[in-house]
Design brief:
There is one protein chain. With about 240 residues, this protein is mainly beta. It has one domain: Porin (Beta Barrel). The protein is built from two helices and ten strands, in the order αβββββββαβββ. An eight-stranded antiparallel β-barrel has the order 1-3-4-5-6-8-9-10. A hairpin with a 2-residue loop joins β8 and β9. The longest helix is centred in the N-terminal third of the chain and has 13 residues, at about 5-15. The protein is elongated.
């Protein structure tokens, strides 16, 4: 049985706001930002025309802040708040063959769209996301370069949702609320990845990270979010 969104959301929030005693090493805070490549796990699950849908990715941005509390020389707890752009891309032969969880999309200028044309579209989902991750790797103190691993749960609250469709000179932008979309407004899952820190000055380190977010929340008809991120940032010792 999958965990309920409210339970996981409460768990992440409790962990993020609970006081953690200072242990080995120094606490750090950081800022980061970069690009995302997002795609739904099963786009065909949203369509009655499975054989015609061709999935692609949505390119977006991700940025946020973090705080890391050391637990030992090689283990820490990292708490984050992020703005994340997710969603997916897709194409179909006919503009009217596909309406992902939108019951009232009625594109204008229908005569401009030929039966053999491919319509290209994006489902744009933006989230405010909280996460709590374990950080495992070599100690950073006294070292210029350190490599580490990250893994842990996240919960995201949708801040924006729309679909953009274009074919044969016809361009349509549909807001989720206007289209009465049934896509879930909450997302949760697990994140994992690898990072490297490089000392640039006393108490300041530059970071480069690659993260993969595996969504577990059923957005609609069994499909979930998948997001790959490349991030650069700065970390400051307190």
């Amino acid at each position: 049985m999958r965990p309920r969104p409210r339970f996981l959301a409460a768990l992440v929030v409790i962990v993020c706001v609970s006081p953690v005693p200072a242990l080995a090493g120094q606490m750090t805070v950081g800022i980061h930002g970069g690009l995302t490549r997002a795609k739904f796990s099963d786009l065909n699950a949203l369509s009655d025309f499975n054989e015609t849908v061709e999935g692609s990715s949505r390119t977006g941005v991700r940025f946020g802040v973090s705080a890391t509390v050391p637990v030992s020389r090689s283990l820490g707890l990292r708490f984050e708040g992020n703005y994340v752009q997710a969603g997916t891309g897709f194409s179909v032969p006919n503009l009217f063959d596909f309406s992902p969880s939108f019951d009232h999309v009625a594109p204008p200028a229908a005569t401009n769209v030929g039966a053999d044309d491919r319509a290209k579209a994006l489902i744009n989902l933006d989230y405010l996301r909280l996460s709590a991750m374990a950080r495992a790797g070599g100690p950073t103190e006294g070292r210029r370069v350190a490599v580490y691993l990250l893994a842990g749960p996240f919960v995201g609250f949708r801040t924006a949702c729309s679909t953009s469709i274009a074919a044969s000179g016809v361009s349509i932008d549909v807001d989720c609320d206007e289209a009465e979309s049934d896509l879930s407004t909450v997302d949760f899952g697990v994140s994992g990845g690898v990072g490297v820190e490089v000392g640039v000055s006393s108490g300041v380190r530059a970071t480069l990270e690659a993260l993969y977010d595996l969504g577990l929340q059923d957005l609609s008809e069994g499909t979930t979010n998948r997001v790959f991120s490349i991030l650069a940032g700065l970390v400051f010792s307190l």
